[in-house]
Predict the structure.
Amino acid sequence: MSKQIETQPAAVPDGLHWGKYIKPYLLYFIAGPILMIVEVLGEVLMPRFLAYIIDYGVSGEAENAPAFIRWLYDLCGRMTSDSDNVPFIAAIAVAMILTAILMMIGGVGGAYFGSKASVNFAADLRADIYRKVQSFSFRNIDRFLCAILTARSGIRIVEPDWLRERLLRMAERVIGNNADT
């Protein structure tokens, strides 16, 4: 009885454990989403700061502002008279500038760490898949064609990366849109 040749090449190595590929880059996998959340929180806070300017700065009711804003207000100096709202508005401007800086750090850092994690993950996975393909017999390689093996192993690694990127972008939009309501 002859041994049957498998009809489909293995898409991933036998006994694939994702942790093996994630573990060396765990810091990147954690830092990327956390920094993205920092950016989204900044997007949520900016309209609130503008509302504070209108609600408490323009109306002259700075004493009724939330504790953090009052602390910034004390830091920038108290109003000299009831009509002078400049220090309060300056305090909120400082908060907005700090928030914008944190948003930039979060956006750039999230993109950097997310890209670093996914590229390294894909590189390690691709290396193992190529090692697996190299272990095929010449008979199997001839049967599957090298071009098909290469194309399948390449696109099967890129597709999860695209999925991860799309899911993170959708999650960012959902968090940002729901937090404003």
The chain has a mean pLDDT of 76.
